[in-house]
Amino acid sequence: MSINAPFGRLITAMVTPFDKDGAIDWDGVAKLAQHLVDTGHDGIAVNGTTGEAPTTKSSEKLEIIRVVKSVVGKNVQVLSGAGDNETAYTVEQAKRSEEAGADGLLVVVPYYNKPPQAGVEAHFRAVAAATSLPIMMYDIPGRTGIEIENDTICRLFDSVENIVALKDAKGNSASTSWVIKRCGIPVYSGDDILNLPLLAVGAVGFVSVCGHTVGRDLKAMLDAWFAGDGAKALEIHQKLLPVFTGTFRTQGAILTKAALGLLGLPGGTTRLPLVDATPEQIEQLRKDLVAGGVVLKN
Q1: Is 112 a catalytic site residue?
Q2: How far is CA 156 from CA 68, 119, 256, in A?
Q3: Would residue 138 show up in a list of annotated catalytic residues for this protein?
Q4: Which of 2, 149, 150, 239 is 20 to 30 A off residue 281, Cα-Cα?
Q5: Are 168 and 160 in contact (CB under 8 A)?
């Protein structure tokens, strides 16, 4: 089975750098976007989990889209998170994101409410009807409290023209295998340590967090895999295991920002309720990155 990758193969969910007063560092946003372009990315996802979207205002989200799009131009797609646990808000955010210049939307399952599958399906249909942008559904039950069941995924993909992909952070490769077999939806791995296993069951690419630090390696893994060199892809996967593990020893945005600091890039601070990494956490992260072959500047 050959499945199209509608957003390219390598996407990173970009952090939002804040200064010590909690304001967005707009120069930092631009520099990070350029860093991701320079390390081989096909797309950048903004305003997602790693971008601390629950703590940014709608106006900030729209300006992030504009700034990143102004840096990356036409050759790199900018996806913007538009998901919320209120469908009406999600619909309006989808419309605003399209007006701000996003190339696609990343829409998470409604969280906290725990709607039944009928509600999940109606939510995605309402958002899709409100925009012409292509949509990547985001299935992450560990955060939302519910999953998108395979029947729901397939109905939406088969019947809604602009629902074109799935970001899979379910942690269940058996379920992913079945949904790909059943309807052929393009699946992007949403969990870095499962990138290679999901490629093996038919995923088309990654929506990564570790792409901030090892984007070139992830690009090389994808290139090797799709060139038929599984041994090379496995070699890269095993090399990067310390990075995959180290980046998530606490919350991913926290340690990604710390890692960017070690690389001399503008990770910035976090907004509450997240807190910055401790010196001890940073020292462990340093060891993890070095073990994974990352060359640090600080």
Answers
A1: no
A2: 29, 12, 33
A3: yes
A4: 239
A5: no
Do the beta carbons of residue 131 and residue 123 sit within 8 Å?
no
* Catalytic residue from among 138, 188, 219, 257: 138
Q: Cα separation of 180 and 177, whole Å?
A: 5
CB atoms within 10 A of CB 279: 8
Please name the residue that has the structure tokens 């729209």: 62
Alpha helices in 39-114 (DSSP H): 58-72, 87-100
CB of 52 closer than 8 Å to CB of 275: no
**In this structure, which amino acid lies at residue 171?**
G
Tokens of 177: 């295998």
pTM over 0.90: yes
Cα–Cα separations (whole angstroms), residue 26 to 18, 101, 222: 9, 17, 31
Per residue of the chain (298 residues), give pLDDT as tens.
Answer: 678 999 999 999 999 999 999 999 999 999 999 999 999 999 999 999 999 999 999 999 999 999 999 999 999 999 999 989 999 999 999 999 999 999 999 999 999 999 999 999 999 999 999 999 999 999 999 999 999 999 999 999 999 999 999 999 999 999 999 999 999 999 999 999 999 999 999 999 999 999 999 999 999 999 999 999 999 999 999 999 999 999 999 999 999 999 999 999 999 999 999 999 999 999 999 999 999 999 998 8
